[in-house]
From TrEMBL:
It comes from the Bacteria. This is 4-vinyl reductase 4VR domain-containing protein. Pfam families: V4R. SMART domains: V4R. It comes from Lacrimispora sphenoides JCM 1415. InterPro entries: NO_sig/Golgi_transp_ligand-bd, V4R. Residues 113-175 form the 4-vinyl reductase 4VR domain.
Length: 181
């Protein structure tokens, strides 16, 4: 058995670190208010920005999101499904786990590029309008899911966000051309 808090020993995240939630939270269960999730996320983002830089905090959230997206895809999605069925399964999973309401706006079957939206996004829906795109974790998460399904590296960029004044988060996901070289 591993100790995730062992000092001096690097640990890569794995699905097993989530543990047995049903056993550990017999009374409280899996539900948790979005407010508590955001308290964790935005306080951590603030501390990372303060200690390093805002750009570094965003990159760390993207990388963590990508790792989470890959693990989520491997453990919660059927990667053998045909594309349309896979996307329907992903949409359903994101709703069931209350991450958001996924819609595919455009898909190019020749390039693999996709434009998608997430409504009622866990990370930002209801935030004050600041003019920023704040869903860096989501960028990484979607990139990780797409990578596991397609086997290709994806660059995912949020182009609309609740915090920028939009009412859905819109992401452009492009196959990473640099990874092909």
């Amino acid at each position: 058995m591993f100790n995730v808090f062992h000092i001096g020993e690097e640990k890569d995240f794995s699905w097993s670190m989530i543990g047995n939630i049903a056993e550990g939270r017999r009374n409280l269960g899996e539900g948790m208010p979005v407010m508590m999730y955001r308290l964790f996320q935005y306080s951590l983002r603030s501390e990372l920005s303060r200690r390093f830089s805002e750009d570094m905090a965003k990159e760390l959230f993207r990388k963590a999101g990508e790792l989470s997206g890959r693990e989520f895809a491997l453990h919660m999605l059927d990667l053998t499904l045909p594309l349309n069925d896979f996307l329907a399964s992903l949409q359903n999973s994101l709703e069931v786990y209350k991450i958001g309401i996924l819609r595919i706006e455009k898909f190019d079957p020749h390039t693999g590029d996709v434009v998608l939206t997430v409504g009622e996004d866990l990370d930002c829906s209801g935030l004050p309008v600041t003019g920023d795109q704040v869903c860096n974790y989501d960028e990484g998460f979607l990139s990780g899911v797409l990578k596991e399904y397609t086997g290709k590296d994806y660059h995912v960029k949020e182009v609309d966000c609740w915090a920028s004044g939009a009412r859905v988060c819109r992401f452009e996901a492009n196959v990473d051309q640099q990874a092909k070289v």
